[in-house]
Amino acid sequence: MADRILVAYATRYGSTAEVAEAIGDELRKAGVAVDVRPVSEVQDLSPYRAAIIGSPIYMGKWLPESQVFIERNQQHLRSIPVAYFAVGLTVADGGPEALRKAEASMDQVRMLVNPVDAGIFPGRLESGRLSLPDRTIIKLIRAKTGDFRNWEAVRAWAEAVRSKIAPA
Fold it and tell me: What pLDDT shows up at residue 152?
């Protein structure tokens, strides 16, 4: 019988990976067996009784690798509790329109597998770590740089979602 929880993620510059690790750490503190892995490294879902899947939001959408992972595994994912999380800079201001757009970034994956919950968190942007095309885009749109992640919100969400995906 599957007794672990998978926290799988896509990331471009590491911010979403760090959020995934924080979610995994919070679940471990509650005594849950957790694997935190990039979606590209997950080949078999049979060891897992639940999954939390995350992606950064780029240009209003999840990264393709997260979407492909869910699409490829949708039959199994529909048979276990699944939660999603998204990390994006646009929600850093906390406005309702930004939150609505961040929610919409999950529309494609929600059609494949409907989650029991979804978390949306502000991200981190360090222009020195970006590729040249991404730096150019950031300059054009005048995006604020910095670390806007709210670790307390991430931990609180992980604790709340635990009861939905891994009841004791």
Answer: 93
- Residue spans per domain, the chain: 4-165
| DSSP structure string for the chain | ---EEEEEE--SSSHHHHHHHHHHHHHHHTT--EEEEEGGG----TTEEEEEEEEEEETTEE-HHHHHHHHHTHHHHTTS-EEEEEEEGGGGG--HHHHHHHHHTTHHHHHHS--SEEEEEE-EE-GGGS-HHHHHHHHHHTPPPEE---HHHHHHHHHHHHHHHS--
CATH class of 4-165: alpha beta
Which residues face 124 on adjacent strands? Answer: 147
Its pTM stands at 0.85
Q: Under a CB-based contact definition with an 8 Å cutoff, are residues 82 and 52 in contact?
A: yes
* pLDDT tens, position by position, 37-77: 999 999 999 999 999 999 998 777 899 999 999 999 999 99
Both tokens of 45, joined, read 């879902």
Q: Which residues pair with 120 in a beta bridge?
A: 86
Q: How much is the pLDDT for 112? A: 95
Euclidean distance between CA atoms 57 and 120, whole angstroms: 10
